[in-house]
């Protein structure tokens, strides 16, 4: 079979059933919003036609301003997920060498694998704070490397890169004629100032982002690709047209209304995220069964049950899910050992977050072999 189902999707809470989960710490976005929360109003004279194949111009205009690029450099997609599929499938061929971070949002690895690329994983290690060492990544770029793909703020670790390292990587990629894809899906969830966009440094840079995570509207299914090279843009739009011709005019109208109010909507969300971040830090700093790295961006972290804690991970997840009603994203979703898990701290309410973390610690205690 050509496509393999990704565990993160197969075991996702929406497929399992939200109503079967008491404390949902699996999510990588802020709390889901309603149409009312974000003030969307759809006029009944909206024409349900095929839309502009690149995406609603007014929406692309807002995005172009964010990136300081022109309207023609922006293509709207069905979420960042489709942006990744279009980008990889349009620009990569079988056996092409691509350097990519692990762990990662699985589609970032699975799509190039499906395409038959030579997927070269750059591993982020907990012992190094999940930090990428830009020089060691650069040393792995070969003359034939077609693409480097990075994600910041990083999923599932919450790690960050600094602007200088991003620029260094961008210039090295340009010199080698290597595309540098930056998945910025969590860009608006950067703690402090956002990173510069790679498209500021090189025309080999491609940015991918969406509305899903920061505002918490993944159901609008709207993302985008920013790319300044016209020839490449032709390939990207061709891929999009072969998949879906154009996006949904309803989704794009909703996305436009939301993005227009982005700053206003993000102010209370950022405050809420910070308060939840403080809860996670306070609770995880005060226990001794998990090792963890404080996230520097995004709304997830990737703790690990310490080696000295002897347990059966299957039993741990059984107790966690069935006795305490807590769900997290197990390491296997990210091709990692199940001692790791992704903890999403911004989606649940604060009390649910606290109960969820307590449940994790209790489940470890319950199944631990030698306390
Ligand atoms: C790093 C990253 N990229 C892309 C996506 C896809 O997001 P969406 O298609 O909802 O915009 C996700 C979703 O979890 C993600 O974490």
Task: Provide the list of bound ligands, each named once.
Answer: pyridoxal-5'-phosphate
* Topology order in helix (H) and strand (E) letters: HHEHEHEHEHEHEEHEHHHEEEHEEEH
Helix content: 25-40%
- CATH level 1 class label of the largest domain: Alpha Beta
Numbering strands along the chain, what is their spatial order in the largest sheet?
Answer: 2-8-7-6-5-3-4
Q: Sheet bearing the most strands, described?
A: 7 strands, mixed
Q: Quote the average pLDDT.
A: 97
Number of helices: 13
Fourth-tier CATH superfamily name of the largest domain: Type I PLP-dependent aspartate aminotransferase-like (Major domain)
Number of domains: 2
**SS class:** alpha/beta
Radius of gyration: 21 Å
Principal-axes geometry comes out as globular
Distance N terminus to C terminus?
A: 45 Å
Ranges with pLDDT <50 over ≥5 residues? none
Give the CATH architecture of the largest domain: 3-Layer(aba) Sandwich
Total strands: the figure is 14
Protein architecture, described:
The chain has 371 residues and is α/β, with parallel strands linked by helices. It folds into 2 domains: 7-33 and 263-367, Aspartate Aminotransferase, domain 1, CATH 3.90.1150; 57-261, 3-Layer(aba) Sandwich (Aspartate Aminotransferase, domain 2), CATH 3.40.640.10. Helices cover 39% and strands 15% of the residues. It contains 13 helices and 14 strands. It has helices at residues 7-10, 13-16, 57-67, 79-91, 107-114, 134-138, 163-175, 212-216, 230-244, 249-260, 262-285, 313-323, 350-367, and strands spanning 23-24, 74-77, 97-102, 118-123, 145-151, 179-183, 205-210, 223-227, 290-291, 300-301, 304-305, 326-327, 329-330, 341-344. The protein has a 7-stranded mixed sheet, with helices on both faces. It has a 3-stranded antiparallel sheet with strand order 10-14-13, with no helix packed on it. A two-stranded parallel ribbon has the order 1-12. Strand 5, helix 7 and strand 6 form a beta-alpha-beta unit. The protein is globular, with a radius of gyration of 21 Å. It starts with 6 loop residues before the first helix and ends with a helix. The structure holds pyridoxal-5'-phosphate. Pyridoxal-5'-phosphate (PLP) binds next to helix 4.
């Amino acid at each position: 079979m050509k496509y393999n189902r990704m565990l993160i999707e197969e075991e996702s809470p929406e497929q399992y059933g939200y109503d079967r989960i008491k404390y949902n710490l699996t999510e990588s976005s802020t709390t889901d919003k309603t149409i009312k929360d974000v003030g969307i109003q759809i006029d009944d004279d909206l024409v349900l036609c095929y839309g502009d194949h690149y995406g609603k111009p007014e929406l692309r205009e807002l995005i172009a301003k964010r990136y300081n690029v022109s309207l023609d450099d922006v293509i709207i997609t069905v979420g960042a997920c489709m942006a990744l599929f279009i980008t990889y499938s349009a620009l990569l061929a079988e056996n092409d060498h691509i350097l990519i971070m692990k762990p990662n949002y699985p589609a970032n690895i699975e799509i190039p694998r499906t395409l038959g690329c030579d997927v070269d994983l750059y591993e982020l290690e907990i012992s190094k704070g999940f930090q990428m060492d830009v020089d060691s990544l650069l040393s792995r770029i070969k003359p034939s490397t077609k693409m480097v793909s990075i994600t910041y703020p990083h999923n599932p670790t919450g790690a960050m890169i600094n602007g200088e390292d991003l620029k260094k990587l961008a210039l090295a990629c340009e010199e080698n004629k290597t595309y540098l894809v930056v998945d910025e899906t969590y860009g608006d969830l950067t703690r402090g100032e956002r990173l510069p966009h790679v498209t500021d440094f090189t025309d080999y840079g491609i940015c991918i982002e969406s509305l899903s995570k920061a505002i918490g509207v993944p159901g609008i299914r709207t993302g985008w690709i920013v790319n300044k090279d016209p020839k490449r843009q032709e390939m990207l739009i061709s891929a999009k047209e072969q998949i879906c011709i154009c996006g949904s005019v309803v989704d794009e109208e909703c996305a436009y209304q939301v993005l227009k109010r982005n700053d206003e909507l993000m102010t209370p969300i950022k405050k809420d995220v910070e308060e939840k971040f403080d809860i996670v830090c306070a609770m995880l700093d005060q226990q001794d069964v998990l090792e963890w790295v404080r996230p520097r961006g995004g709304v997830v972290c990737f703790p690990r049950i310490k080696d000295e804690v002897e347990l059966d991970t299957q039993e741990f997840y059984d107790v966690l899910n069935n006795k305490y009603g807590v769900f997290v994203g197990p390491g296997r979703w990210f091709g990692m050992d199940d001692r790791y898990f992704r903890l999403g701290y911004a989606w649940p309410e604060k009390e649910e977050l606290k109960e969820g973390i307590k449940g994790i610690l209790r489940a470890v205690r319950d199944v631990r072999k030698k306390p």
